[in-house]
Design a protein that fits this description.
Elements lengths: L1 H16 L1 E3 L6 E3 L4 H21 L12 H17 L9 E5 L6 E3 L4 E5 L3 H4 L2 H16 L2 H26 L4 H38 L6 H11 L15 H20 L9
Parallel strand pairs: 3-5
Antiparallel strand pairs: 1-2, 4-5
Helix pairs in contact: 3-5, 5-7, 5-8, 6-7, 7-9, 8-9
Length: 272
C-alpha cells in the first residue's frame, strides 16, 4: 500500500511538472515529451516520408515548369503563416508540395510543412490555403503531437493498471475488462481530445491567416467546399475531427476576433 501511495504521489508530481499552457487559448495541457524529443521523432518520420516520395517521383520541384507557380504560391503562403504565428526563428522550416490526390496537408513538430496537391481544389485560392496551413501550424504552436502521445501513453498505463487489478481479484474478468476499458478510453477520452485539438488548431489558424493578411472568412468557405467534396461521413463521436458543420459554427464565433487582426496586422496576438 505504501508503495502504491508513493507511486501515486510521483505520478501527480510528474503531471504537475508536465502541465503547460497553450498560447492564445490559455488551455492547460499535459505534455510529457520535450520539443527536442518530438523534433527528433519527427525528423525520423520526415526523412522516411521524403525518401518514399522521391522514390515515387512525387515531389514538386522548381524545375517543374507546370507546377512551379503553384509551388511558389504554397511556399509564399506557408512562410507568411509561419511569420504571423511568430515561429519563423523557432524551427528549421521547410515547405514541400507532393503529388498526391488526397485532400490533406500537415506540419510536423520539427517545422516541416507538407501539402498534397489534392488539397488545392478545395483550398481554391491563397486565402483558402492559408486557412489550411494556419490550422496545421496551430497544431505545432499548441504542441498537439506531444500532447496526443502523452495522452496515449497515460491511457495505456491506466488501462494496464486497471486490468492488472481486476486480474488479481478474479482472472476470469481480465479479458473483457481490458476490452471495455480500451473502448471507453478510445471513445470517452482519446477521440474527444483529438476533436478538441482540431478545434483549437482552427481557432489559432484563423487568427494566423488573418494576421498574415488573408480574409479569415475564407476559412468558413473552405469547410463548405471540403464538405461538398467529401465522401461518406461517420458520426462525430467516432471521428478524430469535428464534422464540417461544427467547424463552420465555431469559425463564425471566432471570425470577429480574427477580423480585427485582418484589419490591423500590427496588433499583437492575445496572450492568455
Amino acid at each position: 500500500m505504501r508503495r502504491r501511495g508513493a507511486l501515486a504521489v510521483v505520478g501527480l508530481l510528474l503531471l504537475a511538472v508536465a502541465c503547460e499552457t497553450v498560447p492564445i487559448t490559455g488551455r492547460s495541457q499535459v505534455v510529457l515529451f520535450s520539443e527536442q524529443q518530438m523534433s527528433q521523432l519527427a525528423d525520423q518520420h520526415h526523412v522516411q516520408f521524403m525518401n518514399e516520395a522521391r522514390a515515387k517521383n512525387a515531389l514538386v520541384t522548381p524545375s517543374d515548369a507546370q507546377m512551379a507557380p503553384t509551388l511558389a504560391i504554397v511556399d509564399r503562403v506557408g512562410r507568411r503563416i509561419v511569420e504571423a504565428a511568430g515561429l519563423a526563428n523557432r524551427y528549421r522550416w521547410e515547405i514541400t508540395l507532393v503529388r498526391v490526390n488526397q485532400a490533406n496537408a500537415f506540419v510536423r513538430p520539427n517545422g516541416k510543412i507538407v501539402v498534397y496537391t489534392g488539397i488545392l481544389p478545395a483550398a481554391k485560392n491563397e486565402a483558402g490555403l492559408a486557412a489550411v496551413l494556419g490550422h496545421e501550424v496551430g497544431h505545432v504552436t499548441a504542441h498537439h503531437s506531444a500532447e496526443r502521445l502523452s495522452h496515449s501513453m497515460l491511457a495505456q498505463v491506466g488501462v494496464q493498471a486497471a486490468n492488472a487489478a481486476v486480474a488479481a481479484y478474479d482472472p476470469r474478468y481480465a479479458p473483457i475488462t481490458g476490452a471495455v476499458l480500451g473502448f471507453g478510453v478510445q471513445y470517452g477520452a482519446i477521440l474527444p481530445y483529438n476533436r478538441a485539438h482540431e478545434s483549437e488548431a482552427d481557432h489559432l489558424g484563423i487568427l494566423y491567416m488573418a494576421k498574415a493578411g488573408y480574409d479569415p472568412a475564407e476559412s468558413i468557405a473552405l469547410w463548405e467546399r471540403m464538405e461538398a467534396g467529401g465522401g461518406p461521413k461517420q458520426p462525430e463521436f467516432m471521428s478524430t475531427h469535428p464534422n464540417p458543420a461544427t467547424r463552420r459554427a465555431q469559425l463564425r464565433e471566432w471570425l470577429p476576433e480574427a477580423q480585427r487582426y485582418h484589419q490591423n496586422r500590427s496588433l499583437p496576438l492575445p496572450s492568455r
